[in-house]
Amino acid sequence: MSYKSDIEIARAAQKRPIQEIGDKIGIASEHLLPYGHDKAKVSQTFINSVQEKKNGKLILVTAINPTPAGEGKTTTTVGLGDGLNAIGKKAMVCIREASLGPNFGMKGGAAGGGYAQVVPMEDMNLHFTGDFHAITSAHSLLSAMLDNHIYWGNAADIDTRRVTWRRVVDMNDRSLRQITSSLGGVSNGFAREDGFDITVASEVMAILCLSKDLKDLEERLGNMIVAYRRDRSPVFARDIKAEGAMTVLLKDAMQPNLVQTLENNPAFVHGGPFANIAHGCNSVIATQTALKLADYVVTEAGFGADLGAEKFMNIKCRKAGLAPDCVVLVATVRAMKMNGGVAKADLGGENVEAVQKGCANLGRHIGNLKSFGVPVVVAINHFVTDTDAEVQAVKDYCGTHGVEAVLSCHWELGSEGSIDLAQKVVELADSGQANFSPIYPDDMPLFEKIETIAKRIYRADEVLADNKVRNQLKEWEEAGYGNLPVCMAKTQYSFSTDPNLRGAPTGHSVPVREVRLSAGAGFIVVVCGEIMTMPGLPRKPASESIRLNEAGQIEGLF
Question: pTM of the entire structure?
Answer without folding.
Answer: 0.95
